[in-house]
Design brief:
With 472 residues, the chain is an all-alpha fold. The protein is 78% helix and 2% strand. A two-stranded antiparallel ribbon has the order 1-2. This is DnaJ (Hsp40) homolog, subfamily C, member 3b.
């Protein structure tokens, strides 16, 4: 107030003057504190970025941007973190904002142009590179990138022209260079994937489509196409995973939901069938695989798989003739399937047709030379064949080669009773009967359990009874 009197100000004016001074002091303090905080966030962001702690660095840069939305450098530095995290789409708005705040910021212009070029946006990229060259005509990176942008533009036109002419091989060749320049361009990858599909190479199509699910926002079309491709390849779990991603984006998508129901039903049946096999519930597994063929009759892979596994199950439950028929049908569908040949060989062994078993195992080994099961199975079939050629056990028992176990045992009992040595009196007749009795017992054991012949058969004869000993 004393100063007011000296300057001649009235009481009201003097009070207003003092209030303004106080407010100025308070605002200066607030602005100073905010500036310190912003600098702290920027410094922490820089250190964390250098240390590779990207998420933490990004958090500090978020705070710096919120603290000062007019500072072009904070946007630029946050964009650098987004790029380090592989989030180029998030970096673009920050680079654009930095350029708006400082139009002559060449580093941001160049960085944005590089991103746009990798995204395949040639015209926008060229605009940024030209803007850099207008202010810095000798800028080497901008010159090189402008040349690439012009090359990319020409290649894109060439690729589309080849595609419309139906020359998919040429389209793929051109797109290899296109994608090399613009790896973040979903359109080029989708076009190449379509070419691979038309040329019958779904695996390569999958490789191209997979990254497009991240390169486009809400790319339900890519998820659906991926699910369909995996489904047709028989990869039902992958198919189910992709179609679920589509429904996460829009649970009401009709195409995705329709395919989801089909994949889910089929996948459940396939998993159940394999579960039954693991639990030795083979008849239930056969029934389930019959259902698989009804659920999906149009994709050959699933019918072939069902036929193969039904063949396996019939062998496992020792239905020899049914297994041979089922395995033969599966073999016709997939002639190079080593598993089917192995299983049919086992069915032939069950039917005592060792020569055909050896043939199947030899063919299976051509397609899968590393399988221990096939190698061991072939050795076993060869031993059985060798043994069977020494003696005709069916002839000894007087039964057909397709006789079942009950028929074999019935014939054995009849002949064993007939040729029991106790039924004969003379020494010569008794010795002949003993020989016959041993052959009959040996035939019965081999035909009811082929593996026993491999272990050896020894018969001990006493005065009143005969004992068959297996082993040794």
């Amino acid at each position: 107030m004393e100063s007011c009197r000296r300057t001649g100000l009235s009481g009201v004016l003097c009070s207003l003057s003092l209030l303004c001074v106080i407010l100025d002091i308070q605002l200066d303090g607030v602005l100073g504190a905010t500036h310190v905080e912003i600098e702290h966030h920027l410094e922490m962001g820089r250190k964390l970025l250098a240390a590779g702690q990207l998420a933490e660095a990004l958090s500090h840069y978020h705070s710096a941007v919120e603290g000062d939305s007019k500072n072009y450098l904070t946007y630029y530095k946050r964009a650098a973190v987004f790029l380090a995290m592989g989030k180029s789409k998030s970096a673009l708005p920050d680079l654009t904002r930095a350029i708006q705040l400082k139009p002559d910021f060449l580093a941001a212009r160049l960085q944005r142009g590089n991103i746009l070029l990798k995204q395949g946006n040639t015209q926008e990229a060229k605009d940024d590179f030209n803007a850099v060259l207008q202010r810095s005509p000798d800028h080497e990176e901008a010159q090189d990138q402008l040349i690439k942008a012009n090359e990319l533009e020409e290649l894109q036109e060439e690729a589309h022209a080849a595609y419309h002419q139906g020359d998919y091989s040429a389209t793929i060749t051109v797109l290899e260079r296109v994608i090399e320049i613009s790896p973040w361009d979903p359109e080029s990858r989708e076009l190449r994937a379509d070419c691979y599909i038309r040329m019958g190479d779904p695996q390569k199509a999958i490789q191209d489509l997979t990254p497009t699910t991240r390169l486009r926002n809400d790319n339900r079309a890519a998820f659906l196409k991926l699910s369909l491709l995996h489904y047709r390849l028989g990869e039902h779990h992958d198919s189910l995973n992709h179609i679920r991603e589509c429904l996460k984006l829009d649970q009401d998508d009709k195409e995705c939901f329709s395919h989801y129901k089909q994949v889910k039903k089929l996948s459940k049946q396939l998993d159940s069938a394999e579960g039954y096999i693991q639990e030795d519930r083979c008849q239930e597994a056969i029934d389930k695989y019959e259902s698989v063929m009804k659920t999906e009759p149009n994709v050959e892979y699933y019918t072939n798989l069902a036929k193969e596994r039904i063949c396996f199950c019939l062998v496992k439950i020792k239905l020899a003739m049914e297994a041979i028929d089922a395995c033969s049908e599966a073999h016709q569908r997939t002639p190079r399937n080593a598993n089917v040949l192995r299983d049919r060989a086992e069915a032939y062994i069950l039917n005592q047709d060792y020569e055909k078993a050896v043939e199947d195992y030899q063919e299976a080994r051509e397609f899968d030379s590393d399988s221990n099961d096939i190698r061991e199975g072939l050795e076993r079939a060869q031993k059985l064949l060798k043994i069977s050629r020494k003696r005709d056990y069916y002839k000894i028992l007087g039964v057909n080669r397709n006789a079942n176990k009950q028929e074999i045992i019935k014939a054995y009992r009849k002949l064993a009773q007939q040729w029991h040595p106790d039924n004969f009196q003379s020494e010569s007749e008794k010795k002949e009967a003993e020989k016959k009795f041993i052959d009959i017992a040996s035939a019965k054991e081999v035909l009811t359990d082929p593996g026993q012949e491999l272990k050896g058969l020894h018969i001990y004869i006493s005065d009143s009874y005969y004992i068959l000993v297996l082993g040794i």
